[in-house]
From TrEMBL:
Family in the record: Belongs to the methyltransferase superfamily. tRNA (adenine-N(6)-)-methyltransferase family.
Name the record gives this protein: tRNA1(Val) (adenine(37)-N6)-methyltransferase
Record domain Methyltransferase small: where: 40-159
SUPFAM superfamilies given in the database record: S-adenosyl-L-methionine-dependent methyltransferases
Gene3D superfamilies xrefs: Vaccinia Virus protein VP39
Catalyses which reaction(s): adenosine(37) in tRNA1(Val) + S-adenosyl-L-methionine = N(6)-methyladenosine(37) in tRNA1(Val) + S-adenosyl-L-homocysteine + H(+)
Coiled-coil boundaries: none
Function noted in UniProt: Specifically methylates the adenine in position 37 of tRNA(1)(Val) (anticodon cmo5UAC).
Amino acid sequence: MNKYKTFKFKQFEIGQEKCAMKIGTDGMLLGAWADLSGCNTMLDIGTGSGLISLMCAQRYSELKIIGIDIDLGASEQAEENFKNSPWKERLSVKHIDFSELTLDTKVDAVVSNPPFFKDSYKANTDERTKARHSDHLTLESLFHSSAKILNKGGKLILIYPFDQVEDIYNVASENSFYIAKHCEVAHNIKKPVKRVLLEFCYQNLNDENIVSKLYLKENNSNDFSEQYIALTNKFHPFL
């Protein structure tokens, strides 16, 4: 399939030709995993095509969502995808840097699949570099800015490479966030953990069961695991 073509999910479609970063597993995981129970408002940082916002709008029928992106093309793409969705009344987008964002009221949740590459080669376009690299949205900036716009009972939900988890925990602590959920993602049980899904809040839950594991594929085949199917089958047209 042409990577620039419209991608059809079960309840919505996404165009992505204007986006530097295309639809990928990280966004699918975060959009399906984020627990927004009890939330009325959500901010999607680095919304790109709007995938995560659309998934969350499908999952939570009362949720109002604002997507923001520093890249103009991505912002325009998300706006088009939102307008073409069944939930256009609950979705909006802003072309803005997160550090410059101001809102009339605080939000219940911040969700982000942020740019997190630090030491790899820069991309061949400025748009793709912004979408991939943390130069434009550091961990410190992400947590600091989130703290300013979240309600006291709010939550910050992220996906990051697993090798950055220690840094993430340190920055979270510096900004008075506590870990609520920690899900380690690997290709299968035989492969090392590559990603981690994280939920932070302002209250120390002291819960010993916050850590879980998620495997994308079965151990001895390339078939999707029962875990991944259960998580994403409301979206993928082929599951």
